[in-house]
Amino acid sequence: MLRLKNNFFVLGRNAAIKHPCVTPLYGIVLFIISSLPFASSAQDFKLANTLQDNMVIQQGKALKIWGTAKTEAAIEIKADWDEKVYKATTNKSGEWSTEIPVPTIQPYDFTEHAIDISSIDKKLAVRNILFGDVWLCSGQSNMDMQLKPFLPWLLGVLHYQQEIQNAQYPQIRLFDVPTSFYKAPVNDCGGTWTICSPATVPDFSAVAYFFARDIFLQRHIPIGLVTSALGATSCQAWTSRETLAKDSILFKKYLYPYDTSAVAKEKLDSTVTFEKNVRPTLLYNSMIYPLRNLQFKGILWYQGESNRYDSSTYTRLCAAMINNWRTLFKQNDLPFYYVQVAPYTWQQNDTTAYDYALFREAQANIHKVVSNTGMALTMDIADPSDIHPRDKQDVGYRLARLALANTYKVSNTVCNGPEWQSVETADSIIKVKFVSETVGGGLATTDGQAPHHFFIAGIDGKFYYANATIVKNEVWLQSPMIAKPIMVRYAFTNYPVTNFCNKEGFPAVPFRTKL
Question: What is the pTM of this model?
Fold first, then answer.
């Protein structure tokens, strides 16, 4: 099913398509990319398209103002919060830029600001600007999934009618980067800054909106959301060529096959297939690189389904992408919070399959190798028959809790579920201990029943379902099939919807122990 988004025909978010993140389609679905609306002569006096009325500017960091004009033209910039007149001169390519300091604001400061830019006989202006925090939100279809329904494939997020009706937050501003594909990085992108309202939020990323709403209600500062997401896309598509090329493992797996294969010879300005969604670097070039001069508070990432079979390299790949983006945005420790993929059957209905669990393990390992990262879990709020679960409120809430605890430094903020630390065998019982900081107010289950989805094995390596009992801040496991258990697996299959959590309601992280 094709729908029109940002002047592009794209596949419906839950369309039936044979692809790692959607269901099978009968036939080949194509969409057409039109020429980008922001393409213009470098001689035109203009601002970069991301600098518009209604935008949020990142507080406490220098604002970069940039654009194009005639060669060697003199540019003057005046911001209403600074008495100084800033000047710039275009280079030989007709490009100019300068930076203006931006103060840090206090809660409830919703002052509207303005910038005036002039060159020779022409003037430009940006109005209704707010200072606040700007978050980049990227990934594939679960990040791109909007609030409203897209029938018959999407029923909308839970309680979507009420959510849309209540989305009156003029201090939250929205910017959605249109879809495009380029072989080399481009300087600008399309998109429009809009004010969050019941009229503008229905087509916007649900996860991003619910995250922003929670942060706003907690911090009382304006929030800007820049979404750059597209369904059925791979992590390598959002990563630069230089990043992939300098790592021999990533180069061999991702770049080399495309650089040497006829499948990647299709023209990018003509008919496009799903192959473009996963081809390395294309989305980085067109939907991330143009944002390089914006300042961000942090990044949200919801992606993984298209890399399902890359469990052996995904930790390395995503870590490389994170560092790539941090370098691009000139902030080496930019917060990066991501969502672990939800339980899903993949139309196999095999309760013993665990290839998706291996991928979740690769995701969980990211925050162990990359600083200032955190993972939100969805193991308890999934529908195994739907790769796009409707409960996006809890996903946004959990991402917001990660940000509140780690970026905003709100004390006593629990943001994680139980994470295993060690196991200890006592006769026929094996005891699982958890990292104390993740236990919160104590171990619990969402339904008051015993924890589900624990399996144990003895020396022969055969796993059996275990009876689990919460004993203070431990889980004790045993099975009549095993006299002396030595290994544990928890929720380590493709689609276990879990009930084990801490008393704050954050689900436990799936894990497996090894000999």
Answer: 0.92
